[in-house]
Design brief:
With 432 residues, this protein is of the alpha/beta class. Helix content is 36%, strand content 26%.
C-alpha cells in the first residue's frame, strides 16, 4: 500500500459536508484498504469558522477556500457548497493546481459542465459528480460506464424528493397542494423557499446532466423545458384515478425515433398505476432507463439528505483516489454525437384536458371540431353537468399522441370558443 496519504480539501461543511468528514474519519481504515492508500482530510473551507463542528479539528477550518485549493499538496477537492460562484472558480483553480474534483453541484454542472470537463481534461484530472443527481442512487456511473456499450433511448425519472412527497400526500390523503407543502416543510423535506423544487428548477438541472450522459451530447439547463407542479389540484388526482393513473413530476429525456435529436423536459404528468414509477412513495427518487440492448432498468432509493448524498460523494472519492494511485484518470465528458436538443413543440405526447363549458347542445361538436382542425385525435371524452344547475358542465378530453405544438395550439383555440368558460386543467399523459 502507498504510505503517503492522499490529501483531501473539503469545500463546505453543512449537512452533506459534515457527514462526508465524519465518514472519512470513522471509516478511515476501510477507505485506505479500498483505495490502496490512506486518505487524510487536509482542510475544510467554511463561511462561519466560529461554529462548532463535532469531529473536525478546528485547525483544519479556514475561510479562505481559494488558498486551500491552491495548496500544492492537495490531491482531491470535494465541493459541496452549491451554487455557480464561487464554486466554478474554485473547481477550475483546483484543476490548475493539480487536484481532481468530486462535486455534488447540480446547478453548476447543468450550466457549465462542458467547460469544467474541458478544464479537467486539460490538466489531466478527474471530475466526478455522482452526488449531483438522485443522492445515493448509483446512476451517473451506470449511465457513463456500465451502459457505455449500449444505446440509451429514454430516461424517465422522479428526481426530486420534495415534489414526490407532496404529490404522494395529495394522492394518498386527498390533501390539497398547500396542505401537502406545509407537511413537507414541517418534516424538513421542503425548504422555507421551496421554489427550486416545486417549480422544477432542481429537477431540470438534474435532467440536463442525465441527458448529456445518456445521449453523449451537450445539454444545458436552458435546453430543458420546465413546468412546475403548483397548479396540480385534487381534481387532477381524481381524474387521474378514473384513468387508472397517478401524477408525478417527471424528468423525461428522449432520443428521437430517427436518432437525429434529443429532448429534455420536466413537468407534472399522469402515469399509469402499472408503471414502476407510479409506486414510488414519500420523498424517494427513481429513474427508469430504456436501453436498446439492456432493456428496461430502474434505479431507486433516497434522493437527498446528508447521509445518502455523502455516500455518493464518498463513492466518487474512492474512485478518484484509486485513479490517482494507479496514475490514471477515469472517463471524462462524452459528447461525440453533438445531437441538437429539439423544441418542446416537437415532442409527441398525450394531453388530459379539463374544460368548463356551457351545458347546452352542440358544445361537444364545437370542441371536437377544434381538435380536428389542429390534427389532434380524441381518445376519450367525459362530460358531466354541474349538480348546482348553473348552466355549466365539466368536459374532460384525453387525446391520442400528437406533437405538443399541435396540442397546445388546440388548447389556445379552445379558449377562444364562447361555449368554453375556462380551461380548468391541462396535464400530459406519459409512461404508457
Amino acid at each position: 500500500m502507498r504510505t503517503r496519504p492522499l490529501k483531501v480539501a473539503l469545500l463546505g461543511c453543512g449537512v452533506v459536508g459534515s457527514e462526508v468528514a465524519r465518514i472519512m474519519t470513522t471509516h478511515a481504515d476501510d477507505l485506505a484498504a479500498r483505495i490502496g492508500a490512506p486518505v487524510e482530510l487536509a482542510g475544510v473551507a467554511v463561511r462561519r469558522p466560529s461554529k462548532v463542528r463535532e469531529g473536525i479539528d478546528p485547525a483544519l477550518v479556514t475561510t479562505d477556500a481559494t488558498a486551500l485549493v491552491k495548496r500544492g499538496d492537495i490531491d482531491v477537492v470535494i465541493e459541496v457548497i452549491g451554487g455557480v460562484e464561487p464554486a466554478r472558480s474554485l473547481i477550475t483553480t483546483a484543476f490548475e493546481h493539480g487536484a481532481s474534483v468530486v462535486s455534488a453541484n447540480k446547478a453548476l454542472l447543468a450550466e457549465d459542465g462542458a467547460a469544467l470537463h474541458a478544464a479537467a481534461e486539460e490538466h489531466g484530472r478527474d471530475l466526478y459528480y455522482e452526488a449531483a443527481v438522485a443522492g445515493a442512487i448509483p446512476l451517473v456511473r451506470p449511465l457513463r460506464e456500465s451502459l457505455a456499450g449500449d444505446k440509451v433511448n429514454r430516461v424517465l425519472g422522479i428526481v426530486n424528493g420534495t415534489t414526490n412527497f407532496i404529490l404522494d400526500k395529495m394522492d394518498t390523503s386527498g390533501a390539497g397542494y398547500s396542505e401537502a407543502l406545509d407537511e413537507a416543510t414541517a418534516l424538513g423535506y421542503a425548504e422555507a423557499d421551496p421554489t427550486a423544487d416545486v417549480e422544477g428548477f432542481d429537477a431540470a438541472a438534474k435532467a440536463a446532466i442525465l441527458a448529456g450522459i445518456a445521449f453523449h451530447t451537450r445539454v444545458r439547463l436552458d435546453d430543458v423545458y420546465r413546468e412546475g407542479m403548483t397548479e396540480v389540484s385534487a381534481a387532477d388526482f381524481a381524474s387521474a384515478k378514473r384513468m387508472g393513473c397517478t401524477i408525478k413530476l417527471l424528468a423525461i429525456l428522449e432520443r428521437a425515433a430517427d436518432g437525429a435529436s434529443v429532448t429534455a423536459r420536466v413537468h407534472p404528468a399522469m402515469i399509469p398505476l402499472t408503471h414502476p414509477l407510479a409506486s414510488v412513495r414519500e420523498a424517494y427518487n427513481a429513474v427508469f432507463v430504456e436501453a436498446e440492448a439492456a432493456g428496461r432498468l430502474m434505479f431507486y432509493g433516497p434522493g437527498a439528505g446528508g447521509s445518502p448524498t455523502a455516500s455518493a460523494v464518498l463513492g466518487d472519492l474512492v474512485a478518484v483516489c484509486r485513479n490517482i494511485v494507479a496514475e490514471t484518470t477515469g472517463p471524462g465528458e462524452s459528447a461525440y454525437t453533438r445531437l441538437p436538443v429539439s423544441h418542446m413543440g416537437e415532442v409527441v405526447t398525450r394531453y388530459h384536458i379539463s374544460l368548463d363549458v356551457a351545458d347546452k347542445p352542440g358544445v361537444l361538436a364545437q370542441v371536437a371540431t377544434v381538435f380536428a382542425e389542429h390534427g389532434v385525435s380524441i381518445d376519450t371524452v367525459r362530460q358531466q353537468g354541474r349538480p348546482d344547475g348553473d348552466g355549466e358542465a365539466s368536459l374532460v378530453v384525453v387525446t391520442h399522441r400528437a406533437p405538443d405544438a399541435a396540442l397546445s395550439g388546440t388548447v389556445e383555440a379552445l379558449r377562444q370558443l364562447d361555449t368554453v368558460r375556462g380551461v380548468a386543467s391541462i396535464m400530459r399523459v406519459e409512461g404508457e
